[in-house]
């Protein structure tokens, strides 16, 4: 099945005529995956298309449908033209054009295509049978279409012969232009189809379809094949070949790499020959004559005067002949963007499309080159998608961390406020990728420079920094326009991402991927409308690109105006300030002048004469003397590494003067000489800058020199510490910026002749730091071999210590004296004095590199660790530090690099470190080094599948007595005295945390997690929340709080200083705490408590009273800090708890509650104007006497202002209201008021099943996981609107339990999105198809439901929000995707509104009654409507700044309609609204007039689904009926009194269950429908059919069995069905259904049973019957009744002739299959249900018993019996009897886990047992030794068991929804999640390559890797 038709397109489907520089975007979403041109442009209406002459609609017998017939005696006499007006453009950007046509016999035809190139040139491409030869001009390509029957003689043209077939013409438009004219394709402008032909349709797509391929064949093919969508397919009689009836012509063919090639294939008669013909054909082309000795296509190259072609007999599959054109010498140029993604098969010299079925000799050679390119392209697309997801956030807005955390940690984390707590204040650093980019602002007051991934604007006078945040890697280039309005930046990481910023607001206006792999330089035109860049492509070639930035100012995207490749080196590039179309570049041996004209970028070289070999480095244009003067004659200055400066006249393109800068010291004199220009070897000039009066030159000797423009003498000179990389004169000419390659940034003030340093920087990563709180200093060590001391107040560098030979590794300040200690790679520990700025003491011990340093807070002892595991103790109390002792093998020698490998307690008594191994942490006495405690962290988590390694340690304040240990997977909090684990924090980053710090008040925990900084709410014991902050481009090495807790430092690529906005903590005795602890004060008391003596703003939302049935909540945005990036990993952005702990959180939304009263009149409204402009009182309004206490909340939360004025016709649901009050309490009244209703009238509400949650999961890295989720079988029929499909993009997603399944309808490939802790209730897809919202129910450990916001392109969850208490009923996006609405179910009754920009809660309304549906108005984005009991409620959203005002209007259903409850709704054409009712009626509302004007009986059961598009309406009911209604007359009849006869039913389909989800295309011709029976159907109204897309059991699956050859599997369920699936395609093949019974057990007959076609299934049912089904004949062969109770287990004997069955009473029956008679009953297990029967083969006499079968039976009383049997002799002997005790306490806990047993496949003498017992374990029992040989601990009691036959693997399922895979060889285990229920079934396939796991009706198919 394939979608069709676009959702949206350009206005009226047409794009205006293209101006010379107009750019059309590349393929947009509305044209994907393909576009039906006739349907989109509505050819049948002839409004946007034109017809001339004899054009008619006729019925074609072959295609069995209507087609257009175009006929005339002259081809130009009749035609169809698209678009209607020639000045307009179709704007179709698809790569392929598909023409489905048939030439009329004895007639000619012509097809004209007008194609636009990227340089806006229009080229006509024509195909006709009139043309005799190929002709080509600059604007016209003419290709002859040749019919095989006419190929006698020289004349290859002619009319179509009789019997011509329908042709599937596939034109690769970009390749046609590239191959024949060397132009780049932009879009298809117009089409004209001229007589005489029949045409079915036209399509465009970027996909290469194979018309002969089927969906099944495509899935089985080893190469990727894309079958045509259903509507493009030609009908083929069953059992016949597509090629026997039709012709597929693909042009150009893949083999046309050399235009002279002739690829020839034999075809049936009547096949068309498409291709340009050579002008001279002296001999006939024998096309239909076969070659007797050739089995492959033949390629012949003609001579310059003649060409001959030979035929080859290639078999019946090949169909067309392609003849290539003239150009013989030049190979076909291949563009980077023209990589084809089709699979192709190659012949000898050319590659033929898979559209042609080659014979066996040709099919063996497969082109693999295409696959490699496709992977390369996909990498670029994913990189773009990832970059795009992080860039579109506003600068001051909260950003989400991109890396996914485990579902357990995310679902349990709590939100803590304020958010963000950290705000970026200062950054110490400069450069990163390059130190040459620094810019002045227009006023010269600030400079702009990059610091790794951050762009900084530094105000020179104040020192204030402002940040441009968004890049994810180092910035490689910058450019600022002349008006200071636009800033452009490029990212270094390939593929290069570029950003265009609004410089004043620092908002990213546009993110786009550069055609260049790496950007070297950027330059703006003075006005900012043109941006030029130069760089390298991925092949290393130089690329110059010109972008137009004009559309960005209007909300558009950056446009590529021109792109050119050049072989010349480019080091610098500038756009001339006087002419935005002229540029200049310089590089190795070249200076070139550029011009952009007519969309083409051209260059010409400057004649350099004798200087043509110089390596030029920089250039600049001479500035005008007067800023108002227009100068077009500016001189161009160019400098070189040889010291030359050339003055070039750009108009004459000639060198005017050439000067060489001599060295600063003459060779013959030791004294410095005056700098001169002349001849001789010069100094290397790296940069220059020109002002109207002078020239600034920077050179690699470290000197900045200022020269007059005549270069007569040096005016000023400044010497730097390193080579200068760039210089830049300020706009006023008074200051000169300079940068060095050593990370130095400063400026020279010319009037005062003073030099000021703006920034210094490490030139490599910072490894560690230490703070001296008394002196306010910061010390850092870096990989650049330097130790630097910084002033914390000014962030200026104070000292710099360099050690070239010995790299510093660790550093710490002395807590009392002005000194610091530094450890080096040589093993030395040196003490530096800051007063004397020298080394005081150096200690060199026979040890390795120093890995850690720590000093006691009292300044007594210093400790160092080294890479050899030695721990050294020093006495540092005096000025001279001396070593006390060295303890060997104490510290882990190969520990993870971390600055916190050592930690000293805050009372100086304890020292903790990682060692002596990675998995141990030791605590010793800091004075004596006596060991006090050793903790093995690898034993703390029994559920872990791999050993944890300790990375860093940190002590808490002494009052807590905690030791924090960072491991490779989490952070453990240990008791520092006993070593017992107190709690765990699971990090969201997969890498280890090398540094962590705890605040002095122990409220916040700071962690370095990858390239982010994570802040945890450490004070919250249960499920603490976290905030993640990004900005570093490299991993963060160390983090710490300052002593005053007001700042945070993080170091890595640079040094970041963050402001910590930590709220003042509320003491237990504060007035707020007392008020909250009191049992219910009045309103006045609460106000006093909140705004009393402290005067602080409220820190929590007032708790509402229980009495009110209506609550309105509004949450305004938080005031974000400037330039801060933060991300919260919380589950809820709103309030979560009303306990005293929760009330200490930051401000929440205002809650307005209504108290019961007798008043029912009055009016209420929202301030800010009326909806529609009127404000009149209405008697229907309520809320008289409403009051809001503004003192209860900060000003930003005052969202509703009530007044006596009301709005006409707008009222809320009637209820008893008098006033609003606030009542605090420990329990949320929101939860108390959200009790479920006693009954429900609508089936639309979601009901989740009860489940438990896993408590411990030992996740493994993705690379090490032995299971990979391959597929999901099933669809959650319990969900509501939990399927989305967009026909325009092909996106198809649905839910199965806790998973979101994204499936490709063409290939069947699935993606699985994990994260939800509970079953997903509903889905919603944004209108731009970029965002998917999914909602799940509330888990047992969470207080709210979870809503995840997914990025569709990446498949990642970017936001996690929650607010609803029970379940989310519906989710919907506004038409502009700006808002998201979520609706709670009958128990929650809350309507929440979210901003999709930040996903902050904007408004929340407590509804008085359950609401069944909600929808946004597609015509008005700020209007939404709800339906419920007896009424329709309209909501209008008015936003004033940060405030949201809600206006509500309720309209009752007229009594004449008689509808009980309105259960569904959808909008129709403006202004219609359709509502379905529980009684089966559909009501039509006029939303403008606010009344219902029509209702009709649409069904006799509840209408749960309505969809409308244009004149069609689809309704779905609880009875499974799907009906299509024609409602096109209703918009016109709404004023004329429409009646029920105005609508009529066009079609009806009955499906297998109540309709719960649906999605249709715009024409309502086809769609996807989901039912409560867990089935997804493809519905075609045109054909009147329904086809299963996804099917599964709607009830619990009880067993999975596999065929011996592993070709099929079978499942049985409580719905009474037995289903057989194909294991290759996972498609349902057979289904056996028994009504009113449950199928509880299943077995597949063994291989020894007979031939494969005699395979049988044995199924046991709840009525005690046993049925035998034949798989091959699909019939029931035998029905037996061996039991009175329900069957619970069944198994075949090894020979397949006997079957064993066990029942609920504990009896095991043995029956013959041939007679159906039961000949033995084993009653040893009587009284307990049989849970398992397993049979395996054995040798006669093994284990001391006779027989060939060894079988076991396990029962629910924890007993297992093992038997040996020979059923042919009716012999059965007990081998062993096992009984496993169970503690008495478990018997009283209700339902027990099952007792399961299985023979070990790799050792038949072993038996594996799981079940209830004294310990949670797996027991391995030896049948030979008669004893337990092994016990494997597990975290929970197992509910399922399976053993692999191919490897020593064991799969265990648990009720906690966890699947564990145990490697019995190594003893390791791995845990996997994904199920939403108890994993009650695990089954390995016979080959052990796959594992099937079942939880209720969810079937997950895992691929076993590594075995």
Features:
1907 residues; mainly beta; seven-stranded mixed beta sheet; disordered N terminus
Q: Could you characterize what this model shows?
A:
With 1907 residues, this protein is mainly beta. The chain is 5% helix and 41% strand. The chain is built from 13 helices and 137 strands. The strands form 32 sheets. Strands 2, 5, 7, 8, 9, 10, 12, 17, 18, 19 and 20 form an eleven-stranded mixed β-sheet that branches. Strands 1, 3, 4, 6, 11, 13 and 16 form a seven-stranded mixed β-sheet that branches. A six-stranded antiparallel β-sheet has the order 81-79-94-93-92-91, with no helix packed on it. Helix 8 (1071-1077) packs antiparallel against helix 9. The longest helix has 23 residues, at 369-391. The protein is globular, with a radius of gyration of 39 Å. The model is unreliable at 1-27, 150-156, 257-413, 627-631, 666-674 and 1065-1239 (pLDDT under 50).
The geometry reads as globular
Query: Roughly what is the average pLDDT, rounded to an integer?
Result: 76
The major beta sheet can be summarized as: 11 strands, mixed
Q: Which segments are poorly predicted (pLDDT under 50) over 5 or more consecutive residues? A: 1-27, 150-156, 257-413, 627-631, 666-674, 1065-1239
Number of discrete helical segments: 13
Question: What structural category arises from helix and sheet content?
Answer: mainly beta
Strand content: 35-45%
Summarize the structure.
The chain has 1907 residues and is mainly β. It has 13 helices and 137 strands.
